[in-house]
Write a structure and sequence with these properties.
Elements: E1 7-11, H1 16-30, E2 35-41, H2 54-72, E3 76-82, H3 91-104, E4 108-112, H4 123-140, H5 147-151, E5 161-165, E6 172-175, H6 180-188, H7 191-194, H8 200-213, E7 222-229
Parallel strand pairs: 1-2, 1-4, 2-3, 4-5
Antiparallel strand pairs: 5-7, 6-7
Length: 232
Amino acid sequence: MATPAEVMVVTPHPDDAEIGAGGTVARWIGEGKRVVYVVCTNGNKGSADPEMQPEKLAAIREEEQRVAARSLGVAEVVFLRHPDQSLEDTVEFRKELTRLIRRYRPHTVLTCDPYQRYFWWHRDHRITGRVTLDAIFPCARDFHSFPELLEEGLKPHKVSEILLWGSEEPNYRSDVTATFAAKMTALSCHQSQIGDKIAPELEKRFIEWHQTMAEGEDFELAEAFHRVDMWW
């Protein structure tokens, strides 16, 4: 049986978790919370290099994700290894995520907002977010959803809080001023996506982006989410 975790991050591709929530993950881990990642695809199409073979890229990106997660202190990374750009809203995918929610029993689940119209407009993001929400409610909570999971010893679990990154309607801003450097260090581990190191211009854009998300707050840098309180 898996060790329970306070936080589960369900991410479409290797590197999305760091982009969307790396600073918040670092802060929570610093506060003693146990965090697990669930990476839904292997990212095997995420290259502009025509000489790169998808199988090789998948292996590279999986190792990059392991290193990035380790740099933040993430306790465990679960790789579902679906091919990039192939996610579908299916019963089997919903059951996969329901199984993991019941196994790790998180208080908080983070994933990408499936309802964003323009930003990160990638089908894997939309489908990951949508299926994660369905897995949280009603599937993970309801006793008669996927009764075969009961035979695996996985009892229903009620997630208490959802945070969606990339939302067009953020209502929660997480202070990442002290953990922004840790986020950038983790992001720099994804060399197949950003090169050997983060270019100064890219880092400047990240700083400006996080400053914008912190506007109106009493801290400098933020990650913004749409927060859902699962009180019912």
